[in-house]
Write a structure and sequence with these properties.
two-stranded antiparallel sheet; 10 helices
Length: 329
């Protein structure tokens, strides 16, 4: 990777929270003991080397009134690339992976209030000629919060939002002004790497820099934004294996096992999802590691910890799309 201690410290800070102030690189630099100028130069270099994917707002789909689901398709292998390309064009698709299984194309889909999630998923499945499909919305979210630890000094304090919630809990679509929606559209785009990046955002919108910053902070306090942070190319950091654990957990143990898995630093995501007659796995976990063997060893340890051995691990073989969800498109 060619990362020195200052790079690693910056990446640790950036993954958790980017300062919502007029001169964020000054504040960021102070936190790791370097100048604002050097901080900006290093962040630009990390971006150019494709270690930083983007720096942007990460909003909470549910808090904005959006609905989301995981979808799995069984696609003929000779049509997989074309199918993935078509799926990735959809603005509501943020993650799209090929995985080793009969369901070989997995993607996440987010839709605005009022749209029919099942119909939209089935329409995409039909467009790519999928033999069969699974629509797997979350019943309960135990954890969302990818953080890649690069040094022993990293303290993981990512605020992953209101995890642990159930999809049955009522949530109302927030009332947002046209100005707030315009700011959301801009904040979810990659931040310009300038001394005062939010000034550029404000100029695009024809408003004051302070209005953008105050609105962003308000989104955080209201729970609409999970965090403003950097997303990384994890493979560039040596995390080459991406294993999705699919577990069959007795209904009476879902909460216990979900919370146990969510508490593990190796687990970045943990969801309870709906089941189908031909798909009885009800708990999903994501684990990243340098190798498949390490990933499998972690998941084996997890299985022993909760005494559950009925699971499969699906490794991704190709990443077709990974981005933040785009809202109000």
């Amino acid at each position: 990777m060619g990362l020195d201690s200052a790079d690693k410290a910056l990446l640790g800070k950036l993954q958790q929270s980017f300062p919502l102030v007029e001169e964020p690189f000054c504040e960021l630099g102070q936190s790791v003991g370097i100048s604002a100028k050097e901080t900006l130069e290093r962040v630009r270099d990390l971006k150019a080397r494709h270690i930083i994917r983007e720096i942007c707002a990460i909003f909470d789909s549910r808090a904005l009134g959006y609905q989301s689901t995981l979808v799995a398709l069984s696609v003929p292998i000779d049509k997989l690339e074309a199918a993935a390309a078509l799926i990735s064009q959809h603005p509501g698709v943020s993650h799209n992976y090929a995985r080793e299984y009969k369901y070989n194309l997995w993607f996440t889909l987010a839709l605005p209030p009022g749209e029919d999630m099942t119909k939209a998923s089935e329409k995409l499945a039909g467009q790519v000629g999928a033999g069969s499909s699974l629509v797997l919305p979350a019943i309960r979210v135990f954890k969302i919060g990818a953080f890649f630890r690069l040094s022993e000094q990293d303290e993981v304090t990512v605020d992953a939002g209101k995890d642990g919630y159930s999809s049955s809990e009522a949530v109302s679509t927030p009332v947002l002004t046209p100005a707030e929606i315009a700011i959301i559209r801009e904040l979810q785009s990659d931040l310009p790497l300038e001394e005062r990046p939010f000034r550029s955002t404000a100029e695009k919108l024809g408003i004051k820099e302070s209005e953008v910053l105050n609105c962003a902070k308000d989104f955080l306090s209201r729970g609409l934004m999970r965090r403003f942070a950097a997303l990384l190319y994890h493979r560039k950091l040596g995390f080459l294996a991406n294993g999705m654990g699919c577990w069959r957990v007795p209904a009476e143990r879902i909460e216990e096992v979900g919370k146990t898995f969510a508490a593990l630093s190796q687990v970045t995501h943990c969801y309870q999802r709906v089941t189908h007659p031909h798909w009885n796995y009800n708990l999903f976990t994501m684990v990243h590691a340098p190798t498949r063997e390490e990933c499998l060893a972690t998941i084996k340890t997890m299985a022993q910890k909760v005494n559950i051995n009925d699971y499969i691990v699906l490794f991704s073989t190709k990443e077709f799309k990974k981005a933040t969800v785009k809202y109000y498109w």
